[in-house]
Amino acid sequence: MDAIIQEFWKGRERKKPDGQCIATTLSTTVDPERLRRFVNSANAQSIKPQIQDRIRYDLSGRRCNCSKDEADGWGNIYEAFWKAASEIVVIQDGRGKSSWSTVYEAWKDVVLNVSRGFTNYNFERWALPVLEATARDLRILALKADDERNNTNTEDTPSFGDDFDLEGEKHQKLEDCARQLNRLFTLCLNDRAELERSRKWSIYYIINLLFKTYFRLNKASLSRNLIKALLAYRGDMPELTQFKVSEVVTFQYFQGVLEFLEENYVKAEDHLTEAFFMCHRDCIGNKERILTYLIPCHLLTSHSLPSDKLLAPFPKLQSLFGPLSTAIKHGNLKAFDEALQECEDEFVQRRIYLTLERGRDIALRNLLRRVFLAGGLEEGKNGGEPIRRTRVPVSEFQAAVSLVSGEAVDADEVECLLANMIYKNLMKGYIAHDRGIVVLSKAGAFPGTKV
């Protein structure tokens, strides 16, 4: 017990108390041997008075520099931590009947006592890292508990058909964790203290945990409620730029993904671009996650493809987007379809399949543009300079589409494709059906391609 409580004293007795130092003592990832010594230093009957005494006085009898209320609050937290740690030690030792579900339930008491510390025991802003750390571990334990439960043999479990939500049962603890995190979100959001002392400084850390939880539960739409709540309290909130860069990057990333899923690609591009450029250069994994959604956004908003230089540090993205980019660039419809099909499972899992599927229009646009350029020039009027041919037979487009798609395509289908290109403003002109030609604009036949 002494080692952990001494760390508490070390953080609390500084001229400016160090909440981060105290947070490290309340962690499920603390050294197992240290955790075991802490658990073995007391029993269920003696833990409360021992903790209260050690919080108030150090080994030399010196009194802690905190009020009685605050000391009581910390005592309750460490008592709850001891109970949770006891369950963890049982699991580590492989004895008894403890489980991660039991640890999770015990850890909920730790989080509850931390939140009560702010509402009932006058905890100040410096203690917010403790709130954040315990909330983070709550989510980790919920995931472990659900994994443990789902991996347990359930062959003898009866089937209840439609009356039983099997999918919900898979994430039972994580669902509960979302409710606990929501309470912490409300605790921070509704704080009316001055900003210098406010719990609002943890709002983005908690909201990011909720984002991760909702996405894991496949309930990303619930994240919108959090953003609406933030907007409602905007006047009382610190500026986003005043928060930690890591929190801002995560928040912008999830906002971008939300806009992406709602097909607001311009807004998604703004959020994701900001997240990408704020992300630390060594955080390759985070940059890869951002680019997973930013690349499809660019494809639809500006019809731009990722460069080899951009993809170089990300082998996974190279394998996913490289073949697609090459197919789009060369207007190879067959190669595009094959690349999309080859990585279909990955694209679906990342929720970008339907967006990338729209890239086929860009590939077709590039193919039609090549046909247009291959038509060459024709004599200008009255002996003037040659101009590019703007009347292209539908049969030429038909031949090109049939060639790259690997199957015969009739003229009516090609005209339908051309009409869609014109409607989507990927090509300017009109179809002269009776004459079997496409009349293209002399000024910008293919917008955005300098042709």
TrEMBL record:
Pfam families per record: PCI
One term of GO molecular function: double-stranded DNA binding
Annotated PCI domain residues: 249-445
Cross-referenced InterPro entries: Csn12-like, PCI_dom, WH-like_DNA-bd_sf
Similarity section: Belongs to the CSN12 family.
Protein name from the UniProt record: Protein CSN12 homolog
